[in-house]
Amino acid sequence: MSPGQTFDALVAAAREMRPEVAFVLGSGMGQAADRMRVACRVPFAEVPGLAASTVAGHRGEFSLAEWHGRPVIVQEGRLHFYEGHSWDRVTVPVRTLATLGVRALLLTNAAGGIADALVPGSLMAITDHLDETLPCWWRHPGPGGLGGPRPSPYSARLLAVLEKAAGAGGVRLHRGIYAALTGPSYETPAEIRALKGWGADAVGMSTAREVLAGCEVGLECAAVSLITNRAAGLSDTTLSHEEVMTTAAAQSERLAALLEGFLLEWQSGI
């Protein structure tokens, strides 16, 4: 099958290959998908309701491929609220994946480490999130909120798959809570101290709304943060997107190994 460049080609190829798993690759992580054999690749701009990504390190395309002989859709890059997109548009890619037959969604992101153990290069499986993109977010149910407890949108079953894959591949995988903010500016040291007090282990500008949208359309969701820097005020370095990109590129092999392991464990029917 030759690569196609239209959404219709992607739909047709997905009907034939029937991918059940999709990955979302965050900032600078596109290299992690270089091992796959692409059957069809479609830019975001060719997908109804989407637009091209404007952030460096986000290719902004869907790739339907075989990875270790298994069909998978890889979303290379994402759209962000801080690019000027509505939240509805930010979540269109996730809803699109559901229409293509995907059942399990594993998202990745670049994040700043808040917990002491999360140094640059660490990988953290997200167990829950603080969604500070919501108006008066502290009133909503969830970790640190006043609205009472609610079930985590992150699948315990997929977390077990991830941890089994990490163990088999010798990859150290932390667990933690992710704080999602709108960006595009990095947080202040005072904000990081507040986030730590609310229970956040890492902080970034994506993922939470995508996971919630995935759960709404029946996807089983999991997510992994690649810690690319210590959060503001926790190191002597000045935060920059270049640092994020450099660390993400350096860790792409470890991330690829984890994703491959996840595919193998998923297919084994854990």
Structure, explained:
The protein is 30% helix and 25% strand. It has a five-stranded mixed β-barrel. The protein contains eight helices and nine strands. The protein has a single domain, classed as Rossmann fold (3-Layer(aba) Sandwich), CATH 3.40.50.1580. The protein is an alpha/beta fold and 270 residues long.
- For the report, how would you describe the main beta sheet? 5 strands, mixed, barrel
Structural domain tally: 1
Residues in β-strands, percent: 15-25%
Average residue-wise pLDDT: 89
As residue ranges, the low-confidence spans are none
CATH topology: Rossmann fold
- CATH top-level class: Alpha Beta
Annotation, overall tally of beta strands? 9
The dominant shape is globular
Query: What pattern of helices and strands is seen along the backbone?
Result: HEEEEHHEEHEHEHEHH
- Secondary structure class reads alpha/beta
By CATH's scheme, which homologous superfamily applies? Nucleoside phosphorylase domain
Query: How are the strands of the biggest sheet laid out side by side?
Result: 5-8-7-6-9
Give the gist of this structure:
With 270 residues, this protein is of the alpha/beta class. It has 8 helices and 9 strands. The protein has a 5-stranded mixed barrel.
Highlighted features:
alpha/beta, five-stranded mixed β-barrel, 9 strands, 8 helices
